[in-house]
Amino acid sequence: MSHIEAIYSDYSSCCTDFIVGIEHLKQRSISHAIHYFNQAYRGALIDDSFRNRYESYYGLARVLNGDAQGLDMCVKAALNECYDGDIFLNLVRAEYIKQNREKAVTALLKGLEVDSSHPGLQLMAQQLGLRRRNALPFLHRGHPLNRCIGRFLRRRKVSS
Questions:
Q1: Which percentage of the chain shows pLDDT scores above 90?
Q2: 92 and 107 in contact (C-beta within 8 Å)?
């Protein structure tokens, strides 16, 4: 995990504290990022559409600072999320940092269900070594039938 940054390209609809927090996160100034993400999260009303986003980044920054409570915040933010892939990306990162690979993979799969084209989630899938399901799941990955069918399906997908 070489860098931690937001995937959003448009911050114009987010509050100023969140934008400043993102800049501090990019600069690896975690304590300042925590402060600004906290301000954004605390300032957001319960029905604010960005509240989960603010909580997620606040939680990730806390995890990066060694605070285990941050992981709980990332989990809580992802529980009711239906469309924001970055929230799941932050949960994956937090679980990975806390060395919970199995939970990181679970969060990643859920995130990909929500937003399959999310570049950060796709990158994490590569970094975690996530692979597609076996063609015949009752046989091991290296079985000749799985390999043959897998090659056939990949070729068919490329040609279509």
A1: 55
A2: yes
Among residues 106, 79, 77, 72, the alpha carbon closest in space to that of 92 is found at 106
pLDDT in tens, 87-103: 999 999 999 999 999 99
Cα separation, 70 vs 152, in Å, equals: 44
* Distance separating alpha carbons of residues 97 and 71, to the nearest angstrom: 10
User: How many degrees, rounded to 5, is the angle at CA 99 between CA 123 and CA 128?
Assistant: 25
Q: How many CB atoms lie within 10 A of CB 58?
A: 27
